[in-house]
Amino acid sequence: MANILDKFGKTIVGKRESAADYTPVLSPSGDFSRITNINAIINCYNTILMTPTGTYDHDPTFGCDLYKYIFSPIDDSTMRALKRIIIDQLLMYESRANIVSLNIYPLPGAKKGFSIDLVVSYNDQTESLNVTIDDSYIVR
Length: 140
What we know:
Blueprint: H1 2-12, E1 20-23, E2 33-36, H2 38-50, H3 76-93, E3 98-106, E4 113-122, E5 125-134
Antiparallel strand pairs: 1-2, 3-4, 4-5
């Protein structure tokens, strides 16, 4: 049994110099697809941003409480608070990548919420992530 766990930890999940993860995407070979490098980092960042703090099993500090700011005015103080929360949580749980830029925009029209544009670099690869947090995020 230990040999199977060692193999999983050393070859399947990834190594310190190579990020790897699994994502629940339907594929011909099964229900999960292996993603590596920058795609694994982006998947991890998306999970952190979309998970409310206190809802992740066995880790009550995992996630971001971005939903608390949906109905807040998007002013300088809110922008600073959001950026601080996002950067702190991302760096706490995934420190292998560098955040190149982080921009937050209010949603157009009368929609409540905001959009997060994040550019990330990892091992000479750069990728962007866009996350929208709006009132549909809140379960009624």
